[in-house]
């Protein structure tokens, strides 16, 4: 009996082991098939499919999707023919570049010409090529180029003081992206009518200036004047959106030329919490704004002395040539008097992010470098109001005036209109058009409704808040009643201000805690009148600046009383 039982158990265990082994092998085979199918599916995925599955912020630092294809074959060929390119292009560059440098030379320079010009033995390297898919009527190609060359370039400089200097340009380092546009496409070989080229992006441009047989620093201002001349010439003649057009087939290609497409209106309102660059006292900040970094297109604000929270409330206009690629750049400096200004921080706004005809109120965080943002230091913020107005779309924008029919081509021309319009007393539309200036005079009604979540100012954890209201250009002030023992006071008080120039005034609301022997500052709100002038009336809440917490609930209403003044 024991023998039969042992035999039975042995057979059962053996059959169980065989079945388990077969089942395990089948499972492994299935897993391998599924893994093979998964690998095959991954092999068919595109870069876009990968980005949909895994967002960019989760990529490891070593994962990079290259936008440009390598051009090793072209670099090898260029290295071979570079000695011949050097000989052929040196005289061509001299002939074409000298007039440009002469056009942009600084006042301290009487003349600027090449005495020697060779490109050296080191050929530039094309580090990538890409096709930009943004226009069906042409082909846009971008070539990235890097050149750390050893050219022999000597400039003959004549200063206005009569001093002649031979200046050597050394250690040239350049990295940039050139854009080539083959447009329009035609049914005749080579299948495009013209080629436009431009320096799309200037990533690096470094060079050293040295007086042959001397030291350039011995003559103050010469080095800066030469460097500014070179950079201005490159920026204004070659850097995008400027483009050079080469006709391949006969035809009219004027539509490819650079043309203004709109106007950018900028109101530099204020900055706050700027980093202090002075050891004694506070910084004296001023701002530099530009769309294109050219001397005649850069705007500089007034200097606010000894203030880390400056209020400028200044208005500027900038011409826009390509809204899809251009930016507004703001740089804040500390004025050091006769010494060079010290950099505080900078910020940038992409123009394509602006909605045409709509004012954008924005606070921008200042950074040290716009390209490599590794600096974590808090440098402060800058407050801007922006309005982009494309040419030819003026009548599509809402009019802030009731009963008036002004064209809105910019913020200043919409609100402080500088457009050509027909005089109200003249009904004949063929009459002579006159330019009119509109001063935005009116009544501003401010209702201080309430405040929320004010910080505790008293020992008992409460506060006795009240609000002081004023306009920057008026000396008169109004204040609400005091609400005792409350961090969420309700006032519902209305105050009227007669505003003489609404476009260039500021509404300032300061919240204080009332004490028996004085008052303690809690926080403030500073705002322009642009929004209320455009909308006429609105209710909103505003955070208190300079306070740990707290918001003001306000109702603003604008009753216009424009004054017309013929120019």
From TrEMBL:
Domain C2 residue range list: 243-364, 425-542
InterPro entries registered for this protein in UniProt: C2_dom, C2_domain_sf, SMP_LBD, Synaptotagmin_plant, Synaptotagmin_SMP
GO-annotated cellular components: endoplasmic reticulum; membrane
Swiss-Prot/TrEMBL keywords: Calcium, Lipid transport, Lipid-binding, Membrane, Metal-binding, Repeat, Transmembrane, Transmembrane helix, Transport
Superkingdom as given in the UniProt entry: Eukaryota
GO biological process: lipid transport
The SMP-LTD domain, residue ranges: 67-249
Membrane topology of this protein: Single-pass membrane protein
Pfam families, alphabetized: C2, SMP_LBD
GO molecular function: lipid binding; metal ion binding
Matches recorded under Gene3D superfamilies: C2 domain
Localisation: Membrane
Principal place of residence: membrane
Keyword Metal-binding found: yes
Similarity section: Belongs to the synaptotagmin family.
Known function: May be involved in membrane trafficking.
Protein name, as recorded: Synaptotagmin-5
Species the sequence originates in: Elaeis guineensis var. tenera
